[in-house]
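Below sits the subject:
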Amino acid sequence: MNMQMPAAAVGGEMENRLGQGPGTSRSGERGIDPCDVVLDFELHGRRHALEVAAAAFGRSLDLDPDPIFRALWRRELVGSTALGCGIAIPHARIDGITEPTTLYLRAKWPIDFAAPDGKAVRHLLVIVVPTEGDADAHLQLLAAIAQRFTERTFRDRLTAAGDAGAIRRAFAEFP
């Protein structure tokens, strides 16, 4: 499996958010703040999307990307994490982290993700949570993200965003 991802895919270097430490992700009252943002990456299917996400997490969290990919892929094989409307929320529990961590990934072109509405996916918010983490907190995070993505204006804002800063502002500012 090719886990290489060009640094240019994220506008240069992988960006670490808010000085909270490598790869941590904040979720709070105002919403979700992705730890990394990858824009307009040329994906070749859902497996490749998860490989790219695992490579990004591996880099930002200083972890081996292979177990991250395997955890994401195992979850995806249980059932597609696509919600419909061009959105997917792949997620998995992994070792080596203490807080949930998120990655926003926008595909250059929509890809098949076995969505319930049959629509191809362009927007992915990939989540990894600690293996021993609070299951209720994980479910609340998934619900908050799903709620956010149901809003067409939010999805449109993500589509129009030209850089990682605009993506982060969209997540921070959308009610």
The chain has five helices and eight strands. The longest helix spans residues 46-61. The two ends are 39 Å apart (CA to CA).
